[in-house]
């Protein structure tokens, strides 16, 4: 079973970069970005894949953060995750998210609610 870490909020830092905060108690120490994203239609979340100790960990990015993701996409802003001690740049995030958005548009395989939410915000 893959480990999943949830993002609890998103905020802009002083450099106007988007920082996604992981849930309390989660550590991102020694994580390596994989530059890959998936979709969790049931939880209405985008998933960014990281590697830690040769195992995948899923970073779950919920719908509540999507407006800031959209802004970061539109402005080509760097996106990081943090656990308050460490910070990690999510490489290839823009390309992967843009690809997923294009795939989700009008595609019922992702579920009606996911398609509606993505189309309402990103399209």
Automatic annotation (TrEMBL):
Pfam families referenced in this protein's UniProt entry, alphabetically: UPF0738 (PF19785)
Family affiliation: Belongs to the UPF0738 family.
Protein name: UPF0738 protein AN957_08970
């Amino acid at each position: 079973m893959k480990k999943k870490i949830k993002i609890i909020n998103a905020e802009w830092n002083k450099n106007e970069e988007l920082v996604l905060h992981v849930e309390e108690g989660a550590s991102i120490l020694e994580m390596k970005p994989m530059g890959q994203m998936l979709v969790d239609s049931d939880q209405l979340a985008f998933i960014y894949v990281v590697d830690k100790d040769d195992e995948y960990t899923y970073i779950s990015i919920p719908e509540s953060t999507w407006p800031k993701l959209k802004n970061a996409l539109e402005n080509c802003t760097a996106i990081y995750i943090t656990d308050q001690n460490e910070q990690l740049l999510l490489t290839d995030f823009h390309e992967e998210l843009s690809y997923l958005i294009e795939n989700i548009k009008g595609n019922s395989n992702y579920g009606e609610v996911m398609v509606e939410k993505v189309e309402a915000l990103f399209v």
